[in-house]
Amino acid sequence: MEKTAGKPIRCRAAICRAAGEPMVIEEVTVEPPQPHEARIRIICTSLCHSDIVFWKMKDPPSVFPKILGHEAIGVVESVGENVSQVSEGDRVIPVFLADCEECVDCKSRKSNLCSKHPFKVSPWTQRYATSRFKDLKGETIHHFLYVSSFSEFTVVDIVNLVKVDPAVPPNRACLLSCGVSTGVGAAWKKAKVEAGSTVAIFGLGSIGLAVAEGARLCGAARIIGIDVNHEKFEVGKKFGVTDFVNAKNCGDKPVSQVIIEMTNGGADYCFECVGLASLVHEAYASCRKGWGKTIVLGVDQPTSQLNLRSVEVLNSGKILTGALFGGLNAKSDVPILLKRYMDKELRLDEFITHEVKFKDINKAFDLLVEGKSLRCVIWMDNE
Amino acid sequence: MCKVVHPVVPYQFETASEGEAVMETAGKVIRCKAAISRNPGEALVIEEIQVEPPKAWEVRIKILCTSLCHTDVTFWKISAGPAANFPRIFGHEAVGVVESVGEHVEEVKEGDLVLPVFQSNCGECRDCKSTKSNSCSKFIENEYHNTMPRDGTSRFRDKNGEVVHHFLFVSSFIEYTVVDVAHVVKISREIPIDRACLLSCGVSTGVGAASKVAAVEAGSTVAIFGLGAVGLAVAEGARLCQASKIIGVDLNPQKFELGKKFGLTDFINPASCGDKKISEVIKEMTDGGADYCFECVGLSSVMEDAFNSSRQIMDQGWGKTVIVGVEMHGSPISLHCYDILKGRSVCGTLFGGLSPKSDIPLLVNKYLNKELHLDGFITNEVRFQDINKAFELLHEGKSLRCIIWMDN
Q: Where does the Alcohol dehydrogenase-like N-terminal domain start and stop, copy by copy (chain B) (predicted)?
């Protein structure tokens, strides 16, 4: 096979040219990696609801045209200067949240928010405010969340790459690139769910079910799943959900009241996994006073507001917080979760409900929008 | 039905020793002086009150001194709605001596030096047993705290026999009060009583907010909105935790000099920020926002400012905001949902997250070891008859804590 290192690669990518419109598979040119970057050949990628949020968004920080996708797994094709952590042929998982392993925050186990490369929704590569993608007309195509995995080849900064064991099946490993890590991490690392706790999860998509899986691994005694789709209960049971509340069937009662009654005062930990400020309020209200923690994982519109009653905040002692990537430090924690999967402790297989080929990527979007899938894996064609 | 009428012992019954006086009044109604608030916002009036003996699990306390906390003022001003309960005996920060105890009370006895506290600590419920929370769940929530917590009745009657409401389960603007044992903390006699009084509410709240709720780490940056006694107690707590930067925010420039004594390293007067928002100024000073922000005023707009001043760079946030101030207008705190997703957190606290019975004695020891500074909080002293002066001084922003001494 022809050596591609150091030269631009021509390959196919699914380009998003306008908000809400289907992706179009086009040929793009992918520049070689700059210093601290690596060019990755994507093996497979999966659709996450955050891709949908930014697909539909017309206004900044959403920009067009762009290559979406941020949950994936690939192989290093070539590296730029100053890259020693990975080399050609390595199996890697790209992660939207940087882990430089050098700054105080990355070194601390208390935070996963790198201060050297703070997360922001950016249309460029991590370091250089430039793009590596051009379409055939020479027009710049923007990056997405520092990953852009809906392309046969992409360029990712080393701080956003985790080297992983190639023995793990790629269509399982790719889930740890975002969604499942976020959910499991939120329970395990951010909330630190203790054995015997009661947990309430608002929204039983992949994130919510990953929270349930994480809570199950932590030994939670009760995992209450809240959703408007009754089918999610059966699915949820596979992930440890013990009780189900259909938010549509509560009659006059707000969901929070139902939960407070079920748990004799409120759940120890509440997770919002949908992305609606109104549900954040509901989750906060469902939380036990004194030590209750509400953790926001869902992505709502950038302008949406929360309105909290200050007397309630004062008197309840409850904590309201959120987490990116479930509070995990990518480079140390993703390998731990992969090992737990290989040891048959962590469940990943059940998250995958559909698999499609790259050319049918829009089917993945349809399935998720219609609520028919958890994770749909998109295989690049040479796999 | 035969109603038991307790014989009334007039207050001026003096005896040679404290021990004898205590035994004489036990089991009987005490007539004594109280500063009663009859109408919202009006000066308190010293009147004679009848104080019933303690029922089961209650303690009657002879107040030695008390101090005015802004929460008293907040509720004193409320003129309508269910939170307005008049006539009422305010005061909830105090120190006293046990005069007599009701049935089942074993943890304190006559003559013990005690602090009454608004925050209950029964020691038995799930919350009291947990180290993670101080919200004792023993009693049914009484949002208006105008009675005794266990049976919902009052121990106070005025000279016409009319009920006078309690306040925050303490009611310390009176010579003798009745408090549930879950709200009573026994303390060492070594600490001067006016210093001890401060630990009954304000200073404990502030120090706890910093050391327990926020758990400020050494080297952290802290921003404190509102430099009253509670805000300065937060500063004191942050100083003890070795915060590297303690920024005080207040509209009164005199608070800076005062604040330096409590560990303030920087001061911002929002009125002098020009076009810039206070949160922008703080973010510039701290390279992205303070690690911990404390709201110690009780205004939603300030709570929002505090939240927006907590550390956040680009789309990720670390900063923790602790709400300490009591807001009584019902206006909501409005936050960007995104800011929560990115990682900033917000929580509130009553009594600085401290469990009174275990944590107040620790603070007493810290004072006796000269680690915790309390003296600077006392800026004025008045006699009980001049209690309204304490309200004036606080209203004019001229005092931190004014100690109100009972007559003997």
A: 58-188
Name the minimum distance, in Å, from the CA of A342 to any CA of chain B.
31
Asked whether the beta carbons of residue A305 and residue B334 sit closer than 8 angstroms, the reply is yes
Find out whether A325 and A76 touch, Cβ atoms under 8 Å.
Answer: no
Q: CB–CB of B132 and A291 under 8 A?
A: yes
Q: Report long-range pairs for B368-371 (Cβ below 8 Å, ≥24 apart).
A: B368/B188, B368/B190, B368/B191, B371/B240
Q: Give the span between the Cα atoms of B197 and B187, in whole angstroms.
A: 11
| Distance (Å) of CA B331 to CA A250, A310, B67, B326 | 28, 7, 28, 12
CA distances from B265 to A339, B277, B285, B356 (A): 48, 20, 12, 30
Chain B touched by A103 (CB under 8 Å):
no
CA separation for the pair A45, A114 (Å, rounded):
25
Nearest Cβ partner of A119 from B130, B315, B323?
B315
- Whether B340 sits inside 8 A of A296 (CB atoms) is yes
Helix locations, chain A, DSSP H? 49-56, 104-107, 170-173, 179-185, 206-217, 231-238, 255-262, 277-285, 310-316, 330-342, 361-369
DSSP A31: P
Please answer yes or no on whether B327 and A310 come within 8 Å at the CB atom: yes
pTM: 0.81
Q: Which amino acid is at B94?
A: A
The interface residues of chain A toward chain B in range 250-269, judged by CB-CB distance below 8 A, are: 265
pLDDT along chain B (408 residues), means of 10: 38 40 80 97 97 97 97 92 92 98 96 97 93 88 85 95 96 98 97 97 97 96 97 98 97 92 95 93 95 96 96 90 88 90 93 96 97 96 97 93 92
Chain A nearest-CA distance from B36, in A, is 26
Q: Does A317 touch chain B (CB under 8 A)?
A: yes
Phi-psi region of B181 (alpha: psi -120 to 50; beta: other; left: phi over 0): alpha
Q: Which amino acid is at A36?
A: H
CB proximity list for B364: less than 8 A, separation 6 or greater: B187, B188, B190, B191, B196, B199
Residue position matching structure tokens 């029964």: B122
Flag whether residue A116 sits within 8 Å of chain B, measured between CB atoms: no
CA angle B64, B68, B71 (to 5 degrees): 130
Whether residues B334 and A113 touch (CB distance < 8 A) is answered with: no
